[in-house]
Design brief:
Largest sheet: none
Structural class: mainly alpha
Helix content: over 70%
């Protein structure tokens, strides 16, 4: 059982290291209840995740200038 825990921790560290190197992250703060509405709209529009929906919305806004 100790080996399983160790491997899990090592895998998590490896994923965190990869994510830190590959992606920029920031927090989006919304009023209570709006997260569920965003998730619902993302799913309705066929997005796989909230993140994919938000990134697409930002990109759309950037290209409209």
């Amino acid at each position: 059982m100790t080996q399983e825990k160790t491997r899990g921790k090592a895998a998590t560290r490896a994923k965190n290291k990869y994510n830190a190197k590959t992606y920029d992250q920031f927090i989006v703060t919304v009023p209570v209840g709006q997260k569920a509405e965003i998730d619902k709209e993302a799913k309705k529009q066929g997005y796989k995740s909230r993140n994919e929906f938000v990134v697409a919305a930002i990109e759309e806004k950037r290209t409209r200038r």
